Structures are given as C-alpha cells and as structure tokens.
Fold each of these.
Amino acid sequence: MGVQGLKRYIESNRKFLRDYPFRDSQLIIDGCNFYYSLYFQCKLDQMHGGDYDAFEEIIRKFFENLTACDIRPFVVLDGGADHTDKKFDTLMERSQGKIKQAYALSVGSRGTVLPILIKDVFRQVLHKLKVPLVECLQEADWEIAALAKQWNCPILSNDSDFYIFNLKAGILPITYFQWENVRGDRQTNKKFIPTKHFSVENLCASFKHMNKDLLPLVAAILGNDYMKLQNIRYLRWEQHSVHGGEFARIDGLLHWLSKFAGPEEAIADFLKLITDEEKDIVVKALFEAIKEYKLFSSSLAQFFISKTVPQTSSPLQALPKWTLRPLLEGRMSSYIIDVLVLQRNTLRSQVEDFELPSSNETSRPIRQVLYGVLLLGEQQTEDKLMAAAKESTGTSKCYVDEYDREQLTLTFSKVEAIQTRVKPGIRLETLREEPHNVRLQVLLDTLGVPTVVLKAIPLDLQLQVFVTHYWMVNAQPQPSQVHLWSLLLGMVYGKLCSMPNKQKDTLLSLKKLQIHQGKNRLDHEVAHLYSQWQSCLLWSLHLNRLLCLPLQEPECAWLYRGTLVHQAVRELSRGVTPETLLVSGSYAEQLFRQLKDAVLSLVDKDGILRISNRDGHRTAVKIPNGYRHHNQPIDELSSLFEHFMDEDIEDYDDDDLNGKGRSKAKTEMLECSYTVRTRYKAKSRNDTHPSKKYERRCFE
C-alpha cells in the first residue's frame, strides 16, 4: 500500500521528519517493505538471479546493530492476498510492471527485480537469529499499525500508508534509518542509530492542529492501492496551497481539510464539489477509508507473546487448523492461502530469455501436485470451490488461475490440480498425520526420484540434488555439463562461506569468478536456465513444507550466487575445468565430487550423453518479436525501454527508488495490460522430452 505522492511530500518538509537518536525500544518492522528496501539500497545483484549469501550477511549485521542499541525488533510479513479483491487491479498492474522491468534488466536497461528466493532467505535467517517473526494470513499493514499502537512503539517502513494511521510513537522511514552508522552518546556512552522520525502530531500541527481523524480522507482522495478517487472529476486542490510548487496538490488538500472540525463536515463539503452521478461512489469510498484506518487491538500481540493462534475470518476457515501456526510462524508458504481461498496464484517474474516461455513453466508440474494436495482431498469434493470449478469448466476437475507472462504481457491460464497416485484422496486436513514415507513418496514422485537413492545422498544435500535432477530433465533448453558444473560450484562456494573456519584458502579461486556489475553482457540462455532452476527450487520448497518437511530444508542463502555461477559458465565454456578452480584434496573438491556424483547417479546414460555433448553457450541477444533486432547497440535498447520503468515495487511507495513520481506516460503503459489465456494446462509440458529413467507416477 502507499498513498500517491505522500512520501515525497513528507520528505520535502523538515517540519515533518525530525532527527531522532533511536535506541532502547521495541520496534515493529514492516517485513516485506523492509527486505525490498534493504536489497535495493545495498545494490545487490538483480541481473543474474541474486546474491543471496551477501543478503544474508547484511540482514545479520542489521539485527546485530539493533541489539547493540538495545532495540527489540518484531517483524511482521504479508501473507495471502486480500480476499475481497479490492486490490486486484493494482496487483495486476504491478505484476505487469515487473515483467517489463525484468525484461529491461535483461537487455541492459534500468529496472528493479527482486530475486524470487529473497523472502525465503529472509525468513530462514530471522529464524536462525531468533528474531520474533509473524507472517500474517492476509496483508499486514493494518495489523502492523494496530500492534504499534497497542505497544506504543514506532514502525520501521517506507510505506506512506503508515503516515495516515494515528500512531503516537510514529514512523521511522527505512530510507533514513542509518543502521550501519551506530553512534555512542557522549554523556551516557549508550549506542543509538541516527534516523528521521515522523509523527502525525507534527503533521497536523503544521495545519492549524488539524483533527487527525481527517487524514484517512487524504488517502482516499489522493488514492492508494484500494481507493482511487483521483480518477473522479479533477479537483483543483492547488488553489488552497500556500506554497505552490511540485506538491501544491497535496499541500492544498491538507490546507482545505484543516478548515473542518471532523470528517463528516469535510465529506459534506466535498460532495458539493462533484457531480451527482459521482456522489454514491465517493461517499462509499470516503467512509471505507475512515473504517480502513481505524485501529483496535491487534491479534498479533498474543501470538508474539504466547503463540496463541488468533481466530480466522470466514474466508480463511478453508485453512485446516494445523496449518495456522506454521503459517503464522513463517514456516509454511503463504501461497497456499491464495490457492485455497481464491484458487489463484500470481507467479514472480525473473530476468530471463523473453522469447522463450516463462521459466515458471518448468516448475508447473510441481505446482500441479501442490494444488492437488490442497484442493483434491476427500473433504473437498462437495466444497463450494469445487462446485464453482465444475460450473465454470463443465467438468469435475479443479483448476487454479495462474498469472504469468507470455513474452512481455501478463496473462492467466487455468492450470489443473493433479492428484498424486501415491495415495489418491489424500486429505489436507489430516496431511500431517500421514506416515513420513507417504509424504516423502509424494515429493520424490513429483521430482522423478527413486526412493533407493536416498541412502547414498547426505540429508543436507538431498532436496537441492533432487531439484537439480528434475531441472536437468525438464528444463528447456537442455542444460549442458557446463551449466551443471557451474551450478554445483556455486553450491560449494556457498557451503564453504557458511563454514568460515573451513579451509578459507579453498575459496580464493572461486571468489575470483564473481562478476562485477556491468562488466559483462548477460547471456540470456544461461539466465533462463538458472531462472528455471530457481523456480523449481522455490516450488519444491513450498511442496516440501506443505508435506511437513519429509526432506530436510536447505539454507537457501548458500545454494545460489548468481554473479559467481554466471562467471563460472564463462570460464568453463573457455575450457577451464572445475578441478582447476578448487584446491586439490581440499574439502571444496570433495564436496564438488560428492554433489556431482549424487546428481549423475540420478541421470540415465542417454541423459549424461546429452549434457556432455552440448556446448552450453549461446551469445546472441534475443528480443521479443515487435522490438529491436538482436544486434542493436545496448545503449539504444536502454533508451527504448526507459519508458517501461514503473518505479513502484511491491509494498513500496510510488517513488522510493528514484525520488521521482511516475509520469503520466508510465502510468498509462501499465493500465490493465494483462490478458486472458483460456487454454487448459492439464499435462506436463515436457511429455515430449527424450526418454527419462524415472516416470513421474503422480501424473495421470
């Protein structure tokens, strides 16, 4: 959420943001906004799929610095989408914008794309650090504000919606939170973090001590993710401004509202300014805004204190009770909420080859099994969701609406939920009571792995090895030996980095591989292959969690470092061997061989020949049809796609990244540009692949 232009307006006036030495306090952290902001502020890799280990180190240092200043953090994350769908159009616009930003990055232009495993890395690190964490079952903004009011402590966030809530302890914008610059008070010798502080008191005092209850009308009139009254007939709020300039409209609106004693008077006067046909819409939106920003006790306080699970509202009662605690603890993926409640899944965009099908296509069979476990159990047969699916498709089959890209356009398709043959009719309500071997077999069958190989592969390597095997069999184009070895070298590097006392000298050669940003042009085939691998890993992690962890969950931060893996492909393509990058006889070499042997043990002879015979390197830059030819200079491509840049990111304000609001042209580019695909995806897209050693028995 975010109120249009409000963040930049607040930042433009020294009266609204005041210097503040922050220490010795509780702090509510807007988790999703925080990790988005932190990743981009620290300028970590986006083009090559992310450098997750570097991000983990930043998170670790951040919370260490909070502890040094006696700051007690409580992190709250968004969960499922708003079931009322009030925000649906905004989410679709945002998803369309992210597709175009990912494409812009792929051709060397400017963009902001968050690597798809970041939220999983963030949650895992916080669990390791024992930082209190709650993942809401729905969007978190209201719960964050209610908890901050209840505990009388500030919120750390860049979301301008929090400027509207009446919070006595105020807001600490992430942009000004100097967590790396811990200082000491000369008198008390106690450490603090320099920051800026916003309070509603200061804002309202600047407007004749305006009634705080009028602020929700600012959000409704300016527009946020739920309400867009700025699309009603244009009203010249600028005429009420005493300053003029860039922010005259917001300033004028606040001065106009300051004339009224309360919201009822302001609404009555506002209705005089609009046409009769607009009045019903406006009245409803304004009173909805007042309701939206009204706070009472948060349900999160008791969960933080005693793990008491709050009561769920009607739509969320589709969630079995046993799933609620792991969902709230961030130990189960919140995607299942959208699938169960909305039968919908919006997939994330990555930097890849946009002439090829989305990288998410490769992981679709994994998602189909996950959908089947969620929707096809015995308890669901008479459910209203199934009835709705039957009515819309004319069959008793069940489908999930998946939103993903086709070239540069957001589309949706109906993807069939597939029932596992391991135990037909397996019930979600009693899933955790199923024997371990049943839950394990569902996962292994999905990934095409025989049970007999389990004993030969260490527990902490199993899931990533099985996912890598699945990727080798199903990825298009076919991964080569170079792609596989480079991926495994990245895993070796990550493992060694997670063991700082383990033969540091063995890291030297691998460290030299890391790409410096902007040094090399992106290889689109390499990017596409590793985007497919990340998508397969992501959905395997989600399925593994839903099945109550039949396989040990790996530490995501140490599995993939994009800059290193991409450069390893370049080196190995030139004829360098993996062994020359590893110290002979070292732990690193042993681990590489162990990973290599584990993966190859799952591949048949034909598969080994296929990956050995591919050179794995293509240099052409591919551009979707209708755009520039592949040999056009990169600076021209950058200029061409400059207009694609939507500066919003998920749960980010409209101008956080670049300090500028979206232009009218940029806004128009994103208006409702998603389309509908009506074909049904019921079979694995890889049925035509060369013969595989192990058939996935979970598919009909």
Amino acid sequence: MAMSMKKIGAIAVGGAMVASALASGAFAAEKVGDVNAFAADVVADGNANVDIVVGSNAAALDVVSAANIAAKIGSLMFKEGTVEDGAAKVSVSASAESDDYPLYVADVDQPTTTEVAFITSADKDYNDVFEDIFNGTSGDLDYLAIQPLGKLDTLVEIDDIDPSEWNNSNEDNAAEIAYIKATGTTDDDGQYDVLKNDAAYLSLAFNDAKTNYTALRIGNRIPVLGEEYVLVKLDTDDDLVIVGKEVFDGVMKEGESYDLGNGYTVKVDSVLKPISGKDPKVNIKILKDGKVVSEKFDTTQIKMVYGDIGIVVNSAWENVGSDYGYAELVITNNIVTMELGEEFLPDWKAYVVTDEGEFEKDASATGIIGIALQYTGEDEEDLEKDDTFDIADYVTFEFEDDDDDINTLFKMDESKEVSLSIGQKVSVLNAEIKLAEIDAEAKEAVVMTAPIAVLDSEASLDAADKGLILVGGPVVNALTAELADAGLVAIDNESPATLAVAAGAANGNDVLVVAGGDRAATEEAAEALIAML
C-alpha cells in the first residue's frame, strides 16, 4: 500500500514587538488593485487588522511564507507600555503529520503485523541512522521491525550544533526523534498495547552528512521538546543534564561584561598568561547589582551554573603582545535540569543515550550521543481506531480509523511560548525567531498578539470580520479559488509573483491574494509584501 506524505498544517507566530529573521533585498511582484493602501492598513491602533489564510494542501514553503508575513505584521504592532530589561514573550504554534502505515486490515479481520515499532524525525535521513543504532543491538529500543514514517515537519532539527567550531570544524547536526512500539495479537480485533518502556522521545547528535551519529559535547546546541538549548553541563556527581537558552555566543576581552538584565552581568575578569605548555586560566564572574555572586577561576573548558544562568568557556588566549587576553564563551539563561533516571515529566524518565543504543542514568557514561525521555508509566492496553498515545506531551501517535482499517501515524499540534531579550534569537518548532527591538515607554504593560495563520478550511469569505491575506493560488487555497471562480482574481500556473486586491470580497472587507504560478513565485510575492510593510 502506498503511503502519502501529510503536509504541515499551519503556523501561528504571535507576540509583542517581534521580528523574525527574513530574507533581505529587493523583491518584485505584479500588483493588481490598490495593494499599497491594503499594506498600509494591516495594523490599526497597534493591533492586527487582517487575518492570514493558508491552504490545507499548501506546500511547506507557503506555510513558511504565511508565518513570515505574520511575524512582520507582529513587528509593526506596538503601543506604549512597560518593558523590563528589554524582553518580550512570543508564542509559536505549528501542526504537522507524518506518513501513515496500514496496521490493521478489517477485511481479513487481523493485523498486518502483531508487533511493530514506528519512528519519525525532522528528516527521514535521521530515521536511517536511528535504525542502524538500535536494530539488532541489545539496546533499550532493540527491535528488529522498525517502520519509519518519514519526517514530521514540526520536529526540530539543528543544522550546526557547534556554530563557533571550537571543538569540531564539521557542521554536525542534532534532531528530534519520536519512537513507539505497538503490540497486538492475531485475534485481538484491531486492538493494540503500548507497554512500559516502549515509547520514547529522543534528541540525538548526527554528523553533517546525516549518515551516522556523533558525540554530544558540552557547548553543543540540542533540541529539547521543540526548543533549541545549549548543553551547559553533564554533572557527573549528581547525574544531571543541564541545558540553557543561548543569549550570547562569542569572544569577550578580559575586563568586558555582558548584561543579562535584572541586575545580572557576566564578566571576563581576567585571562592569565599560561605556564609553558599549558592553557591560560580564566576568571569568570557573575554579578548581581554589581556584587559578585558566583566566580570560577580555571583553565578551559569551564562549565558554570548559577541559578538560571549557565556559562561555558570554550577557550582562551592572549594577544600577540601578551598585553591582554580573550575568552570564547557561551552565556545562557532559562536553565533546565534533567535528573537522569528520574521523571522529567510524569511517566517519562530522563536518560542519556549512548552509541551502543543504551539509555543510561550515568552522566559520565561513554559515547553519549543525545538525551531521551522514556515512557515508564502503566501499560496502555486495548488501543484501537481513533485512540491516541501522547509521547512526552509533545508528539501524538494516532490509531486512525480508515473505513474500519487502522492506519497509524504521528501528529503534532503544538504551541510554545518563549521569552527573548533584545537581539536574542531562538529556534522553536523549526521556526527561527529574533527579537530585534522593543518600542515602549509607559506605566502599564500591553499584551498584543500578531495575526494567526489559519487553514482555508477554518476561514470563510462570508464570515470575515477583517481583511484577509490569502497565501497561495487557487490550486492550494480554497478561498483564492472562490475569488478566481468569481472572476475577482486571475492567477494560473503561469502567473508571476502577484499581489492582488479583491476589494470588499470578504464580507465587505478587502482581500489580498499573495500567490504565483508555483511555490517559488508565491514565496517571492510574500517577500515583496514583507518588503512593503
């Protein structure tokens, strides 16, 4: 049976005064109608004056374009309000589905297999490596019949886990993987069990070619449940994995400080000349309101954790004249601590993963390639069509009813709220967000939400209460097709990048169609609109 790739559903990006990382430069698009007037009216009185609609059958590129438009409009929304230390909260939502698999065929009244394990990841290449690690081994997920279900677009992939390349010149990757094993019998009438230890969420490090795993090192970036973190420390005394959100990555001269806000600063106090043949020693201080609250004086690599602050000093050196020194470091906040062998989430225990396919609760284990959350709750029995099993409260595994057959697949419909400082960049649910600036100066905080990109199945021209931005042509966007059928827009497979206004077409509100003859032309039209806003 052929399997179909399920497309990503929709992405919503919201928050106070946020700008995503968009392509820059001059973009051209054919304009039909008063596009300039529509663009000038997307924000009114500090609030979004439009909704954004993307097609249910849209390509991933259309969804990204819709998210970028939403982020740009969000960056235009501001009112006077209190801003503490230049920070803002941003919400990101996304949905997606993996390939499916025919688990149970009703016509023959028996499962196609009585026991099978399924995986999905951010890229199908990672599935192949995962099978190489765990198939035929004595590891914790040892199972000979692993069935990959392609990729799940909303699982996070990090393309370069060591951007400063202090320890490895290769641009190694990290990616999230979901695993589950369904167990049934030949006479169970389409019922399956998910037993204790038979489901896991994993975040693993891979080589740049995506052909093998690689060692996970301190200072590497790694996804954790949809968000990018820096591995700050593997605490071998208490068996802890400690990660934090990057706020600074670079080189600081001795005597320089980095302001974390709320009165906290990190200072490279001194870099001392090394004894012959040894590394320089670095004195790192964390200060609160000018007073030292934590300090470490050592050779690199230095790992330092104080409260919600984590620091990794990768290397240090003196200038040619030995007048002063430099330290290369990563500074993080929003520290998250995983106690190995203990519940990180209810019914989900944290482990490190080794290159032997083992889940270990020892932070000093050799060959660590990632982290895992393994299901350790009660057996879930007699799961049948329309039942679901949630993996780490993050990915849903569904026993889908397909005309009494059962297809299995992974789904995600996830929302994340992240806090950013000015200039900070984060990756969340495979969207990259950067807080460029905040413009506010009053006594009361003001909460604002950028427009949400919804599916065409969730919107209507007749029921619209504000202007609409439709991303995608009539082939992929049902509302664009309605306008085309009514003769209000003219877009076909040969159309260039086009911005077309249909005046009053959405219950008296104007509609802007952002489309072209193919997905690349639609992306170009979206970039042209963003450049106008």
